[in-house]
Structures are given as structure tokens and as C-alpha cells.
Amino acid sequence: MKILNLYAGIGGNRKLWGDEHEITAIEIDPKIAKIYQDFFPKDKVVMLDAHQYLLEHFLEFDFIWSSPPCPSHSRVRKWGVGAENQSKTTRPIYPDMKLYEEILLLQGYFKGKWCVENVIAWYDPLITPQEFAQHWFWANFLIRPLDIKSREHYGGIEKLEVKKGFDLSKYNGIDKEKTLRNCVEPETGKRILEYAINPIQLQSSLI
Questions:
Q1: Alpha-carbon span 81 to 95, nearest angstrom
Q2: What CA–CA distance (Å, rounded) separates 116 from 54?
Q3: Longest pairwise C-alpha distance within the chain
């Protein structure tokens, strides 16, 4: 399959995909893109705006994964609004509608399989997602949920490295905790790709 991995980060969702697919990863931050390339040297890594790249290249792929930025949708961020010591990270902002722009683009124009991932938002979703692993997923195929009991977001860098399967000890100049928190659990990424490749066979196991 030709796979497009948008907002790739260091590749949490991609970690267990193997190397039999032709994968193009889009990551605009050069330091993060370098780490992704180190872990996945066979992938093509492009440092461009993922939202624009999707619009210009979506017809070139068989499966598309997108994880648009989540802070403006996050319940955790919303809970901080109105706090006495309000900061730039908790003041009211517009939700970033690129999330829904990408869902609608893929729903309307893309003939392959696709999945868009984001946090469970502070508002009711404008387009109904599938919910599991403490996240929302929009896809044009059914995904059998995984039981993710903890994402280790408050366990520190070492626990996050174990949970996500990445050793970042040799890298400097990045927020390691934030980078690891942004990773989709590799098992979740693997499960979703499996369903994208063979949805009928895998869904029959639910009956």
C-alpha cells in the first residue's frame, strides 16, 4: 500500500506498521522529522504543511492517516480557561476547524481507506467519530476497539518511552515529554492499519 502519514511526529502510530508498505510521512518540525527518519529510514519524510499537502496529494495514496493538532479541541485545555493564573495556553481560542476540513475532504473525495485521529473534545463532535483508546477516530471502516488502561501521560519521560516504545535519550532541543505524549499508542496504529487493509475479514471476527 501507498500510505500517507500526516502530522507524523516521531511515528507512534506508524511504529508497528512494518516496512512492507510505501510510507510518506509529513512533519513540519525539522527536529521531530529527523527523529522520525532515524527510526524509520525507509520512509519518505517531507517537511511541509500537512494540511496543504493532503489537499494537493491525497489522490496518490491508498491509505491516509491524519492526526491534526489537538490543543484547541482538548478538554484539558478548556478546563484551564478562567483560572486565576490564566496564561496563553488557557485563554479562549477558536477550535481549529482544519480537523473537520480534512474529515470532509476525505469523506467527499478520497476513494481509499482513511483515518483521522484526535482527542476527545470539550464539545459534542460535529461529525460522529468512533471512540476508543481515550481518543476519537473518524474513518471509512469499522475499527474494533482496544482497551488502553493508561497512556502514562503523567508518569514522566521514562515511563512514556516504555509505553510508546521510543528511546529519545540521544536527542536534545525538543520537549521530550510533549513529543511522547503526542504519540498515538503503537498498538492502536497497528490495529487501525489492519482494519484498513482487510476490513471485511477482520470485522467478521466480531460476529
A1: 14
A2: 12
A3: 53
Contacts 24+ apart (CB under 8 A), 71-75: 72/96, 73/99, 73/118, 73/119, 73/121, 73/122, 73/123, 74/119, 74/121, 74/122, 75/119, 75/120, 75/121, 75/122
| Residue 159: all three cell numbers together | 515511563
Question: How many Cβ atoms from other residues are within 10 Å of residue 58's Cβ?
Answer: 20
For residue range 146-185, list pLDDT tens digits in order: 776 666 666 789 999 998 999 999 999 999 999 999 999 9
Which residues are CB-contacts of 183 (< 8 A; sequence separation ≥ 6)? 9, 10, 11, 12, 13, 164, 166
b/e code 156-165 from CB counts within 10 Å (16+ = b): eeeebbebbb
DSSP 7: S
CA 41 to chain centre: 20
Contact criterion met (CB below 8 Å) for 102 and 66: yes
Q: Is the pLDDT assigned to residue 205 strictly greater than 70?
A: no
The helix, strand and coil proportions of the chain, stated in percent and rounded to the nearest 5, come to 35, 15, 45
- What are the residues whose beta carbons fall under 8 Å from the beta carbon of 85, sequence distance 6 or more? none
**pTM (whole model) above 0.85:** yes
Residues 6+ apart with CB under 8 A from 24: 2, 3, 4, 5, 43, 44, 45, 46, 61
Q: Residue 22's pLDDT is what?
A: 98
